[in-house]
Amino acid sequence: MKILICICFFLLHLINLSKSTTPNILIFLVDDLGYGDLGCYGNSTIDSPNIDSLARDGARYTQMYSAAPICTPSRAGFLTGRYPVRLGLTSNDNRFRTFNSPGQPGGLPHDETTMAEIAQKLGYRTGLVGKWHLGLGRNGEHLPTRHGFDTFFGMPVTNVQTCGNKKIYNLIGGHGEVLDRSFLSYWITLTGKIWLTFIGIAFTTWYFYSRKLAFIILFAGAIGFFGGMWYTLSFTLLSRSSCLLYRNETIIEQPVHLENLTLRNTNEAIEFMKDTVTIHKKPFFLYMAYIKVHTALFTLPENVGRSRHGAYGDNIEELDWSVGQILQALKSLNIENDTLVLFSSDNGPFLERGIEAGFCGRARTIEGKLSEPLRGAKGQTWECGIRVPGMLRWPGHIISGQIIESISSLLDFYPTLLKLWNVSPFIDRPLDGISLWSQLKLNNETLLSSSSLSIEKERDTLFHYCGSTVTAVRQGKYKAHYWTPKWDEGLHACPSVTICPCLSNQHSPPLLFDIEADPAEESPLDTQKHSKILSLMDAAVQEHKATLIPVPNQLEKLALPWLFPCCKTQGWTRVFRLITNSCQC
Ligand SMILES: *[C@@H]1O[C@H](CO)[C@@H](O)[C@H](O)[C@H]1NC(C)=O
Ligand SMILES: *[C@@H]1O[C@H](CO)[C@@H](O)[C@H](O)[C@H]1NC(C)=O
Ligand SMILES: *[C@@H]1O[C@H](CO)[C@@H](O)[C@H](O)[C@H]1NC(C)=O
Ligand SMILES: *[C@@H]1O[C@H](CO)[C@@H](O)[C@H](O)[C@H]1NC(C)=O
Ligand SMILES: *[C@@H]1O[C@H](CO)[C@@H](O)[C@H](O)[C@H]1NC(C)=O
To answer: Which superkingdom (predicted)?
Structure first.
């Protein structure tokens, strides 16, 4: 294995730089953004003019699929062009579908080459602003700075509900309060009033009525007192251990202050681009991976109530503002035409969050009618979980205003860049994406390398993974489901278990749909009449499975539950310091 890695890097050194085209690369990847959340995807009640401008001035994809229906594997597939199962970044165990604790030792394997690593070798300055979610490692060995990014400003784990302070607002009645008190002080604030109230009621009951009832009331109060202890412990520990803000390899906020994070991320991104162009005089590769619009939702106070869709809509509109600022900076730097921009989302909306989640959207059928909202949600391989917005802009090169209906994947951007850069894919491991250039209408003068890289082939089959299992397959207009999740009553999601497990209902024969005629997957086709296509799909799955080499599972490696990163102690600390909040920096 070591030898192979060396060969890979050796090959990278052989790239003929003079033949490469190296425009700046700017990637916007949003967290949990729905297919139906943007004006350019048919949402008439949300205001997203800046993001919509990317569709107007570039190419918009109607069938862009993420590599997985959930953050960690989706992002890993995107950055490597390989199905995440090949990287050990998938799990069928619902507890381990993403990295959810900073104490987990696993991460993106180092023998994989991210697009940022290739960009670095080509002379780009590379930066990640926002969310990583591909591991941290006990000694920071899985941080983005160890996977090809020169600079990192953001969160290595994910935004979670407890990173926001809304829960505490509601309970303690405060506003603008951040998680900067000790566990003890939260607990007393939270349960103190309840406890006093119960004592008051119990005393009155004892005096006027019955001593027995008074004891029952006191007992109930005690349950509240200790229940409050657990509750407080869960949010103080979770927010302090997970909600970390890093600069390169150093924690700079613990817990992170979310409120103005989009503003700060935007400023970081603009500064990175400016410095790279004016000081370093290099092309840049910027991966702007928004912490938005995953819950906890957050915006600047002035953006509260900006949209007519509540906090979620406000978050989309603040996102749009940020994209606008960054696009404006490209213009001011006069590098608009030298920058290839990609915009997409890692997976569909987190419908388990109710009104704090996005809209699955409607797709146009082959007859041009709008479908019902797409089925499913984040975490599932129904269309809503994996069909995401996708746009590419490169003024003067990609003809503006085109709509691309071919089946595309976020796995494809890696080979698309290889083709642009004239870099050969590694021979020791399969690449799963295809280059997108042949689908795009390009300006006649746009020079792509003439080398006939083997990544230019057409896509015939796309495998949709939920966890480590191919749960659905797409071939042409047909999609077959081998497994579907079991939803909570009346929903397309599973709030009872946070997110739907992948392997609930097995279908044999599979459920078959014509996605072009029926994007909302409402009318299963007669499988007997379509036995030929089903056997072709089965054969494709078998052939694909034969290419999988077992690798160590990165997500299922267990965390050390008593140790957490702590910005005050140069490394990791025991849980006690998080409770007292002596890690606040
Ligand atoms: C982050 O690391 C890069 C190089 O790896 C360095 O240029 C940059 O100054 C670092 N940033 C900080 C704040 O240390
Ligand atoms: C963001 O908010 C924090 C905490 O309120 C504040 O200290 C900081 O100056 C703000 N940053 C910006 C760029 O507004
Ligand atoms: C627009 O998006 C919001 C937020 O996801 C959603 O609530 C609303 O239904 C969408 N509206 C339309 C017309 O698609
Ligand atoms: C950028 O490209 C567009 C489209 O080809 C062209 O109209 C515009 O003049 C170019 N801008 C610059 C600054 O070269
Ligand atoms: C590209 O060249 C072809 C034929 O040479 C011409 O018909 C077409 O209009 C050109 N397209 C553009 C965008 O310049």
So the answer is: Eukaryota
Among 545, 561, 579, the domain-final residue is 545
Question: What does the alpha-carbon distance between residue 57 and residue 439 come to, in Å, rounded to a whole number?
Answer: 17
Decide: 293 and 355 in contact? Cβ < 8 Å: no
Whether the full predicted model's pTM is greater than 0.85, yes or no, is yes
228 and 299 fall within a common domain: no
* Nearest-angstrom CA–CA distance, 166 and 190: 14
Together in a domain, 334 and 428 = yes
Indicate if 327 and 431 belong to the same structural domain.
Answer: yes
Q: Which atom of ligand 1 is nearest to the CA of 145?
A: 5
**In this structure, are 93 and 203 located in the same domain?**
no
Our measurement of the distance from residue 521's CA atom to the centroid of its chain's CA atoms, rounded to an integer in Å, reads 24
Q: Which spans in 505-559 are helix H?
A: 531-546
Looking at the structure, tell me whether residues 351 and 456 fall in a common domain: yes
| Confidence check: pLDDT of 170 > 70 | no
**Is 96 inside a domain boundary?**
yes
Report d(CA 374, CA 387) in Å as an integer: 9
> β-strands 250-253, 245-247: how paired?
antiparallel
Which of 35, 38, 46 should be mutated for ligand 3, with most atoms under 8 A from CB?
46
Q: Is the CB of 521 under 6 A from ligand 1?
A: no
Residue of minimum CA distance from atom 9 in ligand 2: 260
Q: How far is the CA of 272 from the centre of ligand 1 (A)?
A: 11
Has residue 173 been placed in a domain? no
Kindly state if the Cβ of 390 falls inside 6 Å of ligand 3: no
Query: Whose C-alpha lies nearest to ligand 2, atom 4?
Result: 257
Task: Judge whether 274 and 333 are in contact, CB under 8 Å.
Answer: yes
Please count the structural domains in the chain.
3
- CA dist., res. 306 & res. 322, Å (int): 14
Q: Is residue 413 part of a domain?
A: yes
* Ligand 5, atom 9, residue with closest C-alpha: 444
User: pLDDT tens digit string along 300-315?
Assistant: 999 999 999 999 999 9
Segments forming the whole domain that contains residue 147: 26-168+243-460
Cα distance between residue 12 and residue 32, in whole Å = 34
Q: Write out pLDDT tens, residues 80-95.
A: 999 999 999 999 999 9
H helical segments located in 333-445: 383-386, 413-421
Is residue 151 in contact with ligand 1, taking CB distance under 6 Å? yes
Q: Which residues of 119-146 are buried (b: 16+ CB within 10 A; e: fewer)?
A: bbbbebbbbbbbbbbbbbbbebebbbbb
Task: Tell me the sheet residues that pair with 340.
Answer: 25
Known catalytic residue at 243: no
Average pLDDT rounded to a whole number, residues 487-500: 95
Q: What is the DSSP letter of 95?
A: G
